[in-house]
């Protein structure tokens, strides 16, 4: 089997990376950063997000597993002092894969669209001025949002930014996506729904911003400043990210371990 290691890049993660290369070589795994079957991340969720984006064009062929070296590690199953048992499990090769859907967005102007994918979420956000966003659900007008922004998240991303915004935790077996508000204004003049909303897979959202000079689209850990776009169309994509689970690690036990 071919593997690659994507590391956070700090000294500690590099030490772990070196050790893993030795041990994986011992069990005849081939290091292939370009075309791996198994992508091993060493770091935290930030490193997992980077790895997923790095292999986006091969996403149906690769499978991810994470070793975490600090902080939270919601997507990572192994801790750094557990490396020998990690390598043993790779060698034994008994596992259960889980698949988490990716969100997609088409950012369009009059002539063309650019497509993006996210594992956690995308936000349309303006921290400097009140942002006006018209929201359409399946091409039907729904509301005119005024405030800081909107967060559209995947099931596996529901425990990330979405959770800080008061969104629900959504089990990844539910093929759906969620919209939560970021600092909405509600008064006699402006009105939004205020509740987090969960949409089934076939639905799509269209966001139109009145003034897009300062509005930013965040895509997981990345961001793009949008200048002249007409609308953004968001939905669950047909792409999934596959995670290799060598131990039983249900979503709810992940939530329990991370937050309680
Ligand atoms: P970061 O510091 O790497 O991420 C913020 C925290 O979120 C970290 O503790 C990270 O875990 C954790 N995290 C990431 N994905 C998660 C998930 N699916 N479930 C539970 N926790 C998760 O910051 P970054 O490099 O900009 O990463 C981008 C992510 O940060 C975004 O996708 C967004 O979800 C999150 N974020 C959160 C807020 C907020 O809550 N107010 C604001 C902006 C962005 P690790 O420590 O293991 O990396
Ligand atoms: Mn991080």
Please describe what this structure looks like.
It is built from 5 helices and 16 strands. The chain has helices at 11-26, 45-54, 83-92, 161-164, 251-259; strands at 2-7, 30-31, 38-43, 63-68, 78-79, 96-108, 113-118, 121-125, 131-137, 140-153, 176-184, 197-200, 205-209, 216-219, 222-225, 231-245. Strand 14 (216-219) and strand 15 (222-225) form a beta hairpin. It is elongated, with a radius of gyration of 20 Å.
Topology at a glance:
Blueprint: E1 2-7, H1 11-26, E2 30-31, E3 38-43, H2 45-54, E4 63-68, E5 78-79, H3 83-92, E6 96-108, E7 113-118, E8 121-125, E9 131-137, E10 140-153, H4 161-164, E11 176-184, E12 197-200, E13 205-209, E14 216-219, E15 222-225, E16 231-245, H5 251-259
Parallel strand pairs: 1-2, 1-3, 3-4, 4-5, 4-16
Antiparallel strand pairs: 6-7, 6-16, 8-10, 8-14, 9-10, 9-13, 10-11, 11-12, 13-16, 14-15
The structure holds NADP nicotinamide-adenine-dinucleotide phosphate and manganese (II) ion (MN).
NADP nicotinamide-adenine-dinucleotide phosphate binds at residues 44-46, 71-74, 120-121, 156-157, 159-161, 164, 220-221, 258.
In the CATH scheme, what's the topology name of the largest domain? Answer: Tumour Suppressor Smad4
Q: Name the CATH superfamily classification of the largest domain.
A: Probable inorganic polyphosphate/atp-NAD kinase, domain 2
Report the β-strand fraction as a percent range.
35-45%
Multimeric organization: single chain
H/E topology pattern: EHEEHEEHEEEEEHEEEEEEH
What is the CA-CA span between the terminal residues?
A: 37 Å
Taking pLDDT < 50 over at least 5 consecutive residues as the criterion, the unreliable ranges are: none
**pLDDT averaged residue by residue:** 95
Helix-residue proportion: 10-25%
Q: What are the bound molecules?
A: NADP nicotinamide-adenine-dinucleotide phosphate, manganese (II) ion
Give the biggest beta sheet. 16 strands, mixed
Number of β-strand runs = 16
């Amino acid at each position: 089997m071919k593997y690659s290691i994507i590391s956070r890049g700090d000294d500690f993660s590099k030490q772990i990376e070196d050790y893993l290369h030795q041990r994986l070589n011992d069990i005849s795994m081939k290091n292939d950063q370009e075309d791996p079957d198994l992508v091993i991340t060493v770091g935290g969720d930030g490193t997992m997000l980077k790895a997923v984006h790095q292999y986006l064009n091969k996403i149906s062929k690769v499978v991810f597993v994470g070793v975490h070296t600090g902080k939270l590690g919601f997507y990572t199953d192994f801790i750094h002092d557990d490396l020998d048992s990690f390598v043993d499990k790779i060698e034994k090769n008994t596992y259960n894969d889980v698949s988490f859907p990716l969100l997609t967005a088409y950012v369009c102007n009059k002539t063309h669209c650019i497509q993006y994918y996210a594992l956690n979420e995308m936000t349309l956000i303006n921290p400097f001025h009140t942002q006006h966003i018209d929201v359409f659900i399946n091409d039907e007008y729904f509301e005119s949002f005024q405030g800081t922004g909107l967060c559209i998240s995947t099931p596996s991303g529901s425990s990330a930014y979405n959770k800080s915004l008061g969104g629900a935790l959504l089990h990844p077996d539910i093929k759906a996506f969620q919209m939560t508000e970021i600092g909405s204004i509600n008064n006699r003049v402006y009105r939004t729904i205020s509740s987090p909303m969960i949409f089934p897979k076939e639905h799509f959202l269209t966001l139109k911003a009145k003034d897009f000079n300062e509005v930013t689209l965040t895509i997981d850990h990345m961001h793009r400043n949008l200048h002249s776009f007409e609308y953004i169309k968001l939905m669950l994509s047909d792409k999934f990210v596959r995670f290799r689970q060598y131990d039983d690690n249900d979503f709810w036990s992940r939530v329990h371990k991370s937050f309680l």
